[in-house]
Amino acid sequence: MNSIEKEQDYTLSIETLLREVSKLIPGVVFQYKKSTENAKWFSFCSPRSSEVLGVSPQEVYNNINAIYKCVLAEDVEPMRNSILETYSSLAPWKHFFRVKTEQEKSFRWMKGVAFPKVLHDGTIMWTGTMTDVTDERTIIEELQIMKRIIDATHEGIAICNVTQPGNPINYVNEAFLKMYGYSKEELIGNTHCTILGNGRHQQLLEQLRSKKITAPLQLGELELAKKDGTKFWDAVSIIPLQDSNGTTTHLASFHNDISERKKNELEIKAFNELLEKRVVERTQKLKEVNKELETFNYTVSHDLQSPLRLLCGYSKLVNKKYATQLDAEGVEFLKIIEDSSIRMSNLVRDLLAFSKIGKIDLDTEEIPMMQLVESVVGEVKKNYENVHTSIHVKQMGKAKGDYGLVKQVWSNLIENAVKYSSHQAKPKVEIGCELQENTCVYYVKDNGIGINPDEIDKIFEVFKRLSNSKDFEGTGVGLANVHRIITKHGGKIWIESELGKGSTFFFSLPC
After folding, report:
1. Rounded to the nearest 10 degrees, how much is the dihedral formed by the CA atoms of 376, 380, 382, 383?
2. 218: left (phi over 0), alpha (psi -120 to 50) or beta
3. CATH value of 263-355 in 1.10.287, 3.30.70, 1.10.1760, 1.10.8
4. What is the pLDDT of residues 80-130, one digit of tens each?
5. Beta-ladder partners of 463
6. How far is the C-alpha of 250 from the C-alpha of 161, rounded, in Å?
7. Contact in structure between 509 and 452 (CB atoms under 8 Å)
8. Which of 53, 163, 202, 415 has its CA 20 to 30 A from that of 439?
């Protein structure tokens, strides 16, 4: 058998082999030839071309350009060029292209591979395959997208391979390189000792060398050094990457430069310490000043009581003994002195009570509030016998507090309600309670003169009297006392009021 016969026999054997192999390969098996006269044809195309490419073998045999009708338009020219290149170079043909699906709205990726052989007559024969690699391309594209995302993130990421000796680093992103100041070439293939040092952070190194990490691990905030020796703070965490068997093959470490935050924390800490020191100093000074003021207030108020009693008493004696010797104007003068001394005495009394509240230790007990309020209502009615006010007391729960001080609160609020509603045609006062979690909220509601909205915030200040209360007696200290008592109990007091229609005073106490 001569060489030509041997080659013909080889060609027939190859074609027979291709037919058998094509039955096993999911892609298209083909044989393509180009003669010295530039004639081109497919000498073999496996039956799967109809399924994979949408072109039957017969169509390809009849017209070699039929292969292009299934290729996406924008991929036809690159495919032609790749084939022309292999004509001249006789290099293996390898090209990726897309083919249309039946729906025409999607495509599949194909990979073409063929190897040339020059026959005795100069004909070039390519034997190869075209296989569907859509899934592989999708995975590759997804991986490329993930890589772009990882490279773009501000968080430093390094991955080491724990299946290799020394657990070498095989990936670092740009943020990691920028954070530590190394180049990729300096880190890939090296261990974490490059950045952590052999002696420093031994625990972290042991963690990175371990294959036993099976769950995310927070290593905390570490003071590390860049390549140039600059110290910085790095918040490090590790996530194990496992294979399908659950074995850890890689460790991904995540790094956040928190140097600025640590610097701010230290500054805030120093500022807070300075602030606390100043608060303590000023609080102490304020306590001393308040103590001096309370002592002064108590002393002055106490010392004023005696001369005021004398003034009031002697004015009454003069009026009683010498009234017949005085004209009407003289009697009026004595009356003014007596009334003024009484008002002054009441003011001093209230100031003494105000100063004492700050010094009193609470004698807390459970207060039968219904009984206490009814007692206070009875006392107020005696003091205002000429005022026919309707006072309705609703059922009230018990509260905890100092009985004597809480009684002062009720006395002041109920008396004010009766007093400031006394000019109404039908004065009404309602007293009640609302339970809110562990707090009792009590209220006293009247239909009196009401309070100007601009004055509500100042109503609990010492000596503060309402602009519309000139026709009513008062010292301007009572509500300041009430506020101080409720605050001392840890409660709150507030007002809801409408000018000309009445007011409701609320206060809370622990139940």
Report:
1. 140
2. beta
3. 1.10.287
4. 999 989 988 999 999 999 998 766 577 889 999 999 988 888 899 898 999
5. none
6. 5
7. no
8. 415
For residue 63, give both structure tokens: 């017209």
Query: Hunting for tokens 């100007």 — which residue is that?
Result: 452
Q: Which CATH number fits domain 139-257: 1.10.3470.10, 3.30.450.20, 3.40.190.10, 3.40.50.460?
A: 3.30.450.20
- By DSSP bridging, strand 93-100 and strand 40-45 are unpaired
Query: Where are the domain boundaries for CATH 3.30.450.20 in the chain?
Result: 22-131, 139-257
Q: Which amino acid, residue 497?
A: S
- pTM to 2 decimal places: 0.41
Question: Which residues touch 325 (CB under 8 Å, ≥6 apart)?
Answer: none
Tokens of 424: 């109404």
Q: Which CATH architecture has domain 362-510?
A: 2-Layer Sandwich (3.30)
Fold classification of 22-131 (topology level): Beta-Lactamase (3.30.450)
φ, ψ for residue 364 (rounded to 5)?
Answer: -75, 135
